[in-house]
Amino acid sequence: MDEFFQPIHTYQVCNVMTANQNNWLRTSWIQRHGAHRVYAEIRFTLRDCNSMPGVLGTCKETFNLYYLQSDRDLGSTTRESQFVKIDTIAADESFTNVDLGVRRLKLNTEVRGVGPLTKRGFYLAFQDIGACIAVVSVRVYYKKCPAMVRNLAAFSGAVTGADSSSLVEVRGECVAHSEERDTPKMYCSAEGEWLVPIGKCVCSAGYEERKVACS
Predict the structure, then answer these.
(1) Domain boundary at 88, 123, 141, which?
(2) C-alpha closest to that of 105 among 41, 47, 42, 51
(3) Could you tell me the mean pLDDT of each successive run of 10 residues in the chain, 215 residues long?
(4) Pick from 103, 112, 98: which is nearest to 39 by CA?
(5) Which of 141, 164, 194 is where one domain is finished?
(6) Is 32 domain-assigned?
(7) In this structure, are 189 and 203 located in the same domain?
(8) Predicted TM-score (pTM) of this structure
(9) Domain shared by 124 and 23, yes or no
(10) How far apart are CA 118 and CA 209, in angstroms?
């Protein structure tokens, strides 16, 4: 059960008595749908090694996250050596025998960026090296700047760039009955926010500006 006493389904492993563990869990192929960078939100539980007697030399409290890009679903032909490491992930909270006694496990949530992505899709993989861990859920998403009208220019929604510092330039289109004064542009940040508005459109002769339109 989770911290709200709700039943949960998990992928779990707890081979903490044997050294040199190398257990892998891989997702199915995920299409990127034009995203240059995605984010993986992982919810998991992890047991405190100190709460288990006789495992201090073999028990771990971390796991590794990897990814592999491909232009098609590779099925079961992927190999460990093909994957690129994203990060080693540790738990902010681990559970003990006391938590087990009341059937209450502490959920951790970690988010990691994955990219830059250049192929049609990718896999995520989790490597266990000797932890007592349960993966509860994995959510993969990307960020984009929403469509909007600013300075009488319409900007279509834009997917964010490939890294955390990239800005994607987007040119706006003047709304009906307006014309460019200076070329309207904005930049889509990695967090999905519009920045640095430049230029504008003005209403054509015989029309006046009313909020985001000329009438």
Answers:
(1) 141
(2) 47
(3) 70 92 97 95 92 83 97 96 97 71 73 96 97 94 96 96 92 96 96 95 95 92
(4) 112
(5) 141
(6) yes
(7) yes
(8) 0.84
(9) yes
(10) 42
